[in-house]
Amino acid sequence: MRQLLTSTAILLWAGAAMAQDAALLLGNERYETLGRLPRGTEILQAEEPLRALGFSVSSLPNGRADSTAQTARDWLERAPESERLVVALSGRFATDGARSWFLTAEASGPGLLTPGAAALPIEGVLRALAEAPGQALLLLGVDPGGSDRYDPWVGEGLGTLEIPQGVTVLTGSPRAVARFMSGPLAEPRGDLSAAIRAAEDLEARGYLPQSRIFMPERPETPAPAPGPRADPAAEEALWQGTLALGSIAAYRDYLSRYPEGAHAGEAESAIAAIIAEPDRNARLAEEAIGLSREQRRDLQRNLSLLDFNTRGIDGIFGPGTRNAITNWQQQNGFAQTSYLTPEQIGRIDAQAARRSAEIEAEAERQREEAARADRAFWAETGQRGDEPGLRAYLDRYPDGLFAETAADRLTLIEEEKRRAAAAEDKAAWDQAREADSIEAYRDYLSAFPGASFEAEAEARIAALSEEVAQSDARAAAEAAERALGLNGLTARLVEQRLEAQGLEPGEIDGSFDEATRRAIRRYQRERDLEASGYLDEATVVRLLADSVEEIVEQ
């Protein structure tokens, strides 16, 4: 891992420069992952007072690795020929106990094995300051704490510092250090030792004489003005390129070149947003596919067929669909981003087509098995044509292959009985049939023991009792069908599909009559669905999937 300034590099002096005092000011408050640090850049307010005293000042707010390294090198070039050296660092620090580092704005969670990544070693700074004994000052604005990103082997703050002879080190809060630099330190010919003793909010170590005049007289000629501002057009061109790339590296590059640029705040926010959304690239890749709402419905339908619950088939990828995608990705060996790629969409489509074919094949097998059982039971009961056999068949197969035949024959038997019944018995029976209630049939049986229509009355009592028992279930099924909001076109599509299956739904008119309900129940039984005779989401998914499969086969 790279370090911004190693102990060796910090001692590599450049060639001779014009004699002038040199100051290095680095203040960070906008950290990408370690949290914001209030007042971290306030030390930079001392730049102008220091320039007024003749210092050549190298300063940088919220510096990343590259820009911090360049600023430090600028200071090093001036340091060999300088009489006084001042370094002020304000921000977050890390230490393993023996070594300490000043962290740049892009630093993330320092650890024991990589503490120097994107960091400035304090030991190297101290060795550079040792070249000006008695005239070297290091000020450290240390945050009292607040980040939980450090590993257990590296602590936040400063460790034990080995301070070279003749170097003074002042530590305190970022605000205390900034106040001292803009106040007592900026006084021409001020007694630095007295000012340090008076600063109760600073801790002093190293070279501390009883009296010390540190700063020079203020020069009569003004300090050189700062260099010209960067070309706004060049900065805007770089920013547009940064937006086009949209990566952390691009935003960091912009901030390294323009730490106080017109778009610095936007760049900081963009970096924070990218870090906060680990799957951002996956989301952007899915958005680039441009899925239509109908394509999204198809995906939801396919995932439902594969038993991944999307909590609705509406073409809107909400939490339910994202969770279903994540679960599918996990089972199929893909990264669990909850966002789809073209490859994954193709895999889901292929798996759903296969599953649809498997469901249809199983439904066909069950249909044939049910038909064999139906015919066998009919042969033993209703085919004989007597009333007990016909009723036994209808009890077992109310929607069976021969249900209509059995019902027609029972009607004929009932009419024959009516003709043969006594007038009074017949009238009572007709009255009971008109009322068609459990109480009416019971009254009839009570009034006519051994009545001509005893079997019919008992059958109706049983049927009505069953209807009462199933009323709640039917009401729930009706409500579920209404909730689907099917239009007339979809209803006719359902009837067409049932007709294609040979389930005889009656006239295809978008209106569900008893024939349609019977066909739906048959379809549901063949596919191990709840045989309510009403549509629910699972039944519609299977019907539409069967339709798609039929079109593909054609």
* Beta fraction: 5-15%
How much helical structure, as a percent, in the residues? 40-55%
Strand order of the largest sheet: 2-1-3-7-9-10
Mean pLDDT: 84
- Overall SS class: alpha/beta
Largest sheet entry:
6 strands, mixed
Low-confidence stretches: 1-18
Q: Note the gap between the termini.
A: 62 Å
Radius of gyration (Å):
43 Å
**Helical segment count:** 21
What is the number of beta strands? 10
The shape is rod-shaped
Describe the fold and architecture.
Helices cover 51% and strands 9% of the residues. It is α/β, with parallel strands linked by helices and 554 residues long. The protein has a six-stranded mixed β-sheet with strand order 2-1-3-7-9-10, sandwiched between helices. A four-stranded antiparallel β-sheet has the order 6-5-4-8. α1 links the parallel β1 and β2. α13 runs antiparallel to α14. It is rod-shaped.
